[in-house]
Amino acid sequence: MGVSITILKYVGIILAGYIIGSSSMSFYISKFKKINLKEKGSKNLGASNTLAIIGKKAAAAVLVHDVLKSFFAILAVRLLFDIPYNKVDWLLAAVGVAAVLGHIFPFYLKFKGGKGFATYIGLIFGLDWRLFLAVVGIIFLVAFITDYIVAGTFSTITIGPLYYLVIQPSLIVAGIVAIGSLVILWKHRENIINLKNGSEMKIRSAFQNKYKQAS
After folding, report:
1. Residue 215 within a domain
2. Rounded to the nearest 10 degrees, how much is the dihedral formed by the CA atoms of 38, 26, 53, 150?
3. Domain count, the chain
4. Residue 163: which domain range?
5. Is residue 47 part of a domain?
6. pLDDT digits over 61-109, tens only?
7. Rounded distance, CA 53 to CA 107, Å?
8. What residues contact residue 121 under an 8 Å CB cut-off, 6+ apart?
């Protein structure tokens, strides 16, 4: 009986992480603005499409919200189970990945949400702030060198599992984080195709287009 209760408790906590992750600021803002982001631009409920269709302030709100929801889900578990910040536990990773999956597959939007990268960054932040700082630096560096923001995305979702496989060895944590990485990779399959055929939007081109529109 005790084992069953413990399992139910863990399942409930992970489910709570999913529910927190399913909160969609882009959806709330689009409803307020009466703009259906699922029918415009990339048809994605995320910060990048919000930026393209609605604007910078709305995109900033979406980005902060998407990062913090997985971070706070993990923080809540740390406080609940008194897990020190310098320790990584499988439950922390599971709750964080559940939040990522909630963002990508929100139950109240027919399981069609965003691509999950910002929430994945929040997962990394919640697990290890040092890894978070390193990842942010790598995103900017890789994006600057390649001129593709998606290249920073692919670098990050690769580094996440490898960090817990090599630097802070935990096969369970690495495996759980890898689940989030693989789902995000699948959500970016169109970007991969665009990279192959040369149609993926480049960062400098995007800024030049914005400048021309403003001129």
Report:
1. no
2. -90
3. 1
4. 2-209
5. yes
6. 999 999 999 999 999 999 999 988 878 889 999 999 999 999 999 998 8
7. 24
8. 67, 132, 135, 136, 156
